[in-house]
Specification:
mainly alpha, two-stranded antiparallel sheet, about 5% strand
Length: about 475
C-alpha cells in the first residue's frame, strides 16, 4: 500500500503544458472541453499542487494527508462543473465523477477487507509471534539482514508492503540495539524488498491492484514479474550485505503465544484471496465482490469467537478475612470480540487519501492534462522510455496518482509494456526513503537510525537494482512485447 508525498508530478504536467500546447479552449455542449489553457485548468493545477505541498508537510504540520486532497478534489470538480454548466452541459462532469467514484469504491472496499484481516491477525498476535521467533533464534546480524529482507519480499505480496516493513523493522530494532549502521542498512533492505515483493502480486501494492481490477493483466500474468522483482531486491542486498557485521547480537528471548483462532484467521485470509481470484477469473465479476464475500468468513468466525468466550474458565485470587489467599475458578464471560472493531481500526486516513487523489487526477484528466501527458510520454518518447520514467517519478511522487493517470490515459501497449509500468511504479519508490509508504513509515519507526540522507547514500546501489530488474524483465518476458 505506497504513499509518496511530493508534488513533482504536478510540475511535470505544468512543464508539458507550456512546451506542448493544445488547441485553445473551445467546445460545444455535450463535448469534452479542452481546459488546459483556460483559467480553470491553471487553477486546478495550482489547487492540486498546494494540496500536495500540505501532504508533503504532514510530518511537520501534523495535518492528516487526506484532508487537503479531499478538499482539493471538491474544489477541482466545482470548477469543472461550473465551466461545463456555463456551456449548457450539466451531464458530462456528472458522468465523469461518477465513473471516478466507482473506481474508487472498488479499491476502497478491497483494501478495507484486506486491512480488516491484517488487523484481526495483529490482534491475535500472529505478527508478534513471528517477531518473537526471529529474535529468539540467535542469528548473526548479517543473517538477520538477509532473513528480514527475504521475509519482507515474500510477505508483502500477501500482506501490504507497509505492514510487512513495520513488522520487519520491529525485529531489526529489537536486535540492533545501538548499532546504527546495521539498523540503517537493514531498513533500506526491508524497504527495497517489500516494494519489490509487492510488484509481482495483484495484492502486493495498490498500483498492481489497480491494474488487475482494470482487467489489463490477468492474475497469473503478474507472476511473470517474479524474476525481475527478485533481481531488484537481490542486487542491492548482495552489495549492502558486505557492509553488515557478522557479530551475533545479545537479545532477550521473549516468548509470545498466539491467541485462540489465530491460524484459522490466517487460513480464512488465504481463502478470501482465493475467492477474489475465482470471482475475477471464473465468474468474470469484480475481485472486490470476492473480497467482500471473504469478509463474511471472518465475520462468522468472529461471531464464533465471541460466543465461545462464555465457555472459558478464568482463575481468580480472593483474600479472606484471615488474610489467607485462595484460588477459585469462574466462568469468563468474554464476549468483547467484535469484528467491527477490526474494521474501525483500518487506515481511514489512507483510504480517504486515495479518494482525494483519484478524484483530483480524474478532474485533471477531464480538463485535458492527462491527454497531454499521454501524447508526450507514450507517443513522442515511446512506451519503454515513458514506463521507465514512471519508476523515477514514483520515487518523487506518490505512485497512486501516477498509475491512476496511466490507467486513465489507457495508451495502446503490449502486455510486456503494461507489466513494465507495473514493475517500475512498484519498485521505483525504493530509490528514495520518501518514495514509498514503507520508507516513510520506517523513518518514523526507526527515527534517528533510518534517515533520508542515510538512504540517499545507497541510491546508486538501489538504482543499479532498478536498472537490472528492467533488463531482466525484457529478457525473461521478451515474448510479451
Amino acid at each position: 500500500m505506497n504513499i509518496r508525498n511530493n508534488p513533482g508530478w504536478i510540475f511535470l504536467l505544468i512543464t508539458i503544458g507550456f512546451f506542448f500546447p493544445i488547441s485553445s479552449f473551445a467546445s460545444t455542449a455535450g463535448e469534452t472541453l479542452d481546459l488546459t489553457q483556460h483559467w480553470v485548468g491553471y487553477s486546478a493545477i495550482a489547487i492540486f499542487a498546494f494540496a500536495y505541498l500540505l501532504v508533503m508537510a504532514e510530518e511537520f504540520m501534523h495535518l492528516r494527508k487526506s484532508k487537503p486532497v479531499i478538499l482539493a478534489a471538491g474544489l477541482i470538480w466545482i470548477l469543472v462543473a461550473y465551466v461545463y454548466a456555463q456551456h449548457g452541459d450539466t451531464h458530462t462532469a456528472e458522468i465523469a465523477i461518477r465513473h471516478n467514484i466507482l473506481e474508487y469504491s472498488e479499491l476502497f472496499l478491497f483494501l478495507l477487507v484486506a486491512m480488516t484481516y491484517i488487523n484481526a491477525m495483529e490482534e491475535r498476535l500472529v505478527f508478534d509471534k513471528l517477531k518473537s521467533w526471529l529474535v529468539s533464534k540467535g542469528f548473526t546480524l548479517r543473517q538477520l539482514f538477509w532473513i528480514t529482507g527475504i521475509i519482507a519480499f515474500f510477505l508483502s505480496p500477501i500482506a501490504d508492503n507497509l505492514t510487512t516493513a513495520l513488522l520487519m523493522c520491529a525485529v531489526v530494532m529489537s536486535v540492533g540495539g545501538d548499532n546504527k549502521k546495521f539498523i540503517l542498512l537493514a531498513c533500506i533492505n526491508i524497504v527495497v524488498a517489500a516494494n519489490a515483493g509487492g510488484a509481482f502480486s495483484p495484492f502486493g501494492d495498490i498500483t498492481t491492484l489497480m491494474v488487475w481490477q482494470k482487467g489489463l493483466i490477468d492474475f497469473w500474468t503478474f507472476f511473470s514479474l517474479f524474476i525481475p522483482s527478485v533481481v531488484n531486491f537481490v542486487v542491492p542486498a548482495a552489495i549492502m550485505s558486505f557492509a553488515v557485521s557478522t557479530d551475533k547480537p545479545d537479545v532477550k528471548d521473549e516468548a509470545v503465544e498466539m491467541k485462540k483462532g489465530a491460524m484459522v484467521i490466517v487460513g480464512l485470509f488465504v481463502l478470501t484471496i482465493i475467492t477474489a481470484v475465482s470471482f475475477h477469473n471464473f465468474m468474470h465479476l469484480p475481485p472486490v465482490a470476492g473480497m467482500m464475500t471473504g469478509l463474511s468468513y471472518l465475520m462468522f468466525y468472529a461471531f464464533y469467537l465471541k460466543k465461545s468466550g462464555h465457555s472459558q474458565k478464568k482463575v481468580f485470587l480472593s483474600q479472606a478475612e484471615d488474610n489467607s489467599v485462595s484460588a477459585h475458578s469462574d466462568t469468563q464471560f468474554d464476549d468483547t470480540y467484535e469484528i467491527f472493531n477490526k474494521v474501525k481500526r483500518a487506515e481511514w486516513d489512507t483510504l480517504f487519501f486515495f479518494y482525494g487523489v483519484i478524484l483530483c487526477v480524474g478532474g485533471l484528466g477531464l480538463i485535458g492534462y492527462l491527454a497531454m501527458a499521454s501524447e508526450f510520454m507514450y507517443i513522442d518518447l515511446g512506451p519503454t522510455t515513458a514506463n521507465i520514467m514512471v519508476g523515477v517519478l514514483s520515487a518523487i511522487v506518490d505512485n497512486i496518482p501516477v498509475m491512476f493517470a496511466i490507467l486513465t490515459m489507457n495508451p495502446e501497449m503490449s502486455q510486456g509494456q503494461w507489466l513494465l509500468a507495473t514493475l517500475t511504479a512498484g519498485v521505483g519508490g525504493s530509490m528514495l526513503s520518501i518514495g514509498s509508504a514503507a520508507g516513510v513509515a520506517l523513518m518514523g519507526q526507526a527515527r534517528g537510525y533510518y534517515t533520508f540522507f542515510g538512504h540517499l547514500k545507497w541510491l546508486p546501489v538501489i538504482a543499479l537494482g532498478y536498472v537490472a530488474s528492467i533488463y531482466a524483465h525484457f529478457w525473461v518476458n521478451a515474448a510479451l512485447f
